[in-house]
Structures
1.
Amino acid sequence: MTNLPIHPEPPASPPNPSLVVLGRFQPFHRGHAQLIKAAEEWRKLNASEMPLVIVIGSSNRPESMQNPWSSEERIAMLNTWLEAEGIVDVSIVSVPDIEDPPNWVVHAEMYHGVAGVFFTSDIPSAELYENAGWPVVMSSLEQRDNFEGWRVRETARMMSTVDDEEAVRSVLSHSVPSVIVDHLISSNGLRRLAFLGEGGEPVG
C-alpha cells in the first residue's frame, strides 16, 4: 500500500453512479478543459440523468514540482473555470493516492461512487476502469503532447520569476485557459515553482 496519509477520508455515503472524469489538474490546462467539455456534451446527449463528477487525484501528495498545488488549490482552479464556462451541477471530489494501481478503482469508488461511466482520453486509466467493470467512453484529445502536465508545469516554472504579468499571460495562455492564468497570478500560485528545484514528467 502506501505510507502517504489518506487525506481526505472517504465520505460516509459515496455519490450515486455518475459520469466520472479523472485528472491530477497540476495545473488545470486546456487539455483538461477539452476533456470536461466533451464529457458534459456526452452526458447531455447520452445520460442526462447522470451527474458529472470531476475527480482530483493525488490529493495527498506533498508539495513538489510534480505536485505544486494542493487539492484545495486545484478545486479553486476548477471552480474558477467551471463558473467562467457556465457549467453547473458538477461535483468535485479529491481522492488520495494509495500507490496500488490494481486496487485504485475500488479505492476511488469510495469517493466518487460505484460504476457509472468513466470518461477519459488516457488509455492506462481506461484500462483500470474497464478491468473493474466500468463502462468507459474514450475521448480523443487534440494536441495531447502539448497538454502533458509536465510540459505545462515546466513552462509555468520558466515564467514563475517573470514580473511582467502580460508576458506571463501571453506565454501560459497557449496551454492554460486565460481565467486560470489570471487565477494563478492573482493567488500568487506561480512563484513557488521557482523554488521547488526538480524536474519530472508524470502525466498531469
Note: Residues 144-193 form one domain.
2.
Amino acid sequence: MPKQTHTTLIEAVHRDRDARRAVILALVLLSVWLLLLAAFHFLPALDVAMSAAFFEATACAEGTADGIVCGDFPYQRDTLFVFLRQMLFYMPSLAAVVVIIALVRALQHHGATYQPRKVRDYAISLLTLFIGPYVVVNLLLKSFSGRPRPHQTDIFGGELPFMPAGSFAGGCENNCSFISGEAAGAGWLICLIPLLSEKMRPVFGPALIAVSLVTPAFRVSFGGHYLSDVVLGWLSSPAVFAALLAVFEIARVRKNTL
C-alpha cells in the first residue's frame, strides 16, 4: 500500500467513531494481556500462593526421599465439582451451535430485512472461538509452552519443576498449563453478550457471566492450571474478538474511503 494511501486510511479510521473505538479497544486489551503476563512472570509467587490455597499436603509413604512433597488437590475428587466442571466444559460448544443457527437464519434474509452488522458480529464471534481457544491456545500455546500444570510440579506433589508464566523452558511435553483452554472458552462467552438483544441481555447475560467466571475457578481449584493460566486464557478471547472487530472495521473504512 503506498504511503499516501496508508496515511489516508489511518486518518479515515481516526475520523470514523466505530472504527476508532474498535482499534482502541483491541490495543487496550492486548496491552492489558501483555502487562498481566509480565506481572505473573516476574511475580511467580502469585501463582504459587493461589494454587497452594487449594492444595492439601499429606504424609508421604515410608521410604520417600527427603524433600518430596506429597498431597493433592481435593476438589478434583469432589463428585459434585467434577460434575459441574464437566457440564460447564461443554457450554462454549453449545453456545457456538446457537450462534451458528443464528448466523444461518440471518443469512436467509434479503433486501430490507437483511442485517449486515448482525451477520458480521455472528461471524466475528465464531472466528474468535476458532482462532482464539482452538488455534492460539490449544494448538499453539498449550502444545509448545512446556509449562507443567500445578499437580505436575514438585511443589504440589508432582515431579517437574515449577515454571513461571510465559516461560517455554518447562518439562511438559503436550497439553501444557499455559494457557487454559477452558478459561479461553469461558472468556469467549463474554463476547456473546453484545450479540444479545436488549431484552435478552438481562435474562442470559448474568448466566453467561457466571459460567464465564466459575469455569476458570474450577481449573485452579482442581490443580489443573495456575491463576495466570486462567486469567490470561480468559482474557485472550475478548482480546482476539476485539482484534477481529478492529480488522473488520478497518476493512469497512478502507472500502468506503479508497
Note: Residues 43-245 form one domain.
